[in-house]
Specification:
The protein is α+β, with helices and mostly antiparallel strands. The chain has one domain. It is built from 4 helices and 7 strands.
Amino acid sequence: MKQTEEIRTLRTETCNTLSGSTKITYNISCTTDSKIYFRISNNTGGGFYSNEWVAWDAIQQALKQCPKDVPITSLFLYPLFKGKSVNTPSFLLAALKHLKLVQPLKDKKRNHELLDFKPFNEEMKAMMSSKVAMHVAKKKAANKKPSTTKKKTSAVSRHKKKKVSA
């Protein structure tokens, strides 16, 4: 992958975390060569997370390596974020649940099973073909520098928000 690459955001969604105590926002984007990427872009709770883009191909590969008789947990996604925030794999799993790519096992909200990826993949192909673009930005190459992001509002920006809304 190039150092920087243009990406096009196809979807930005907000959903509950697996615990249901806070909400996360995630983005799904594509590159000019039609590779799909995910990232966590916000968390309403106080936890740290990595906002690094992760390839959909890598996510699918990690999930498909899970033994058939073992429930999927966020532990299977940890290798995608080695050296990053421990919250990010769980946040990504919450996004996958929201997209109906995994579903919780009965009475076990943190244990999941895989669902069919085909409808999602077809939807992404259609969105890429339609040239829909919520945002176009430069994407830094993955696995460069560990980055954890914690969204906090400073006193100055809180003050500015109050002035704007007043």
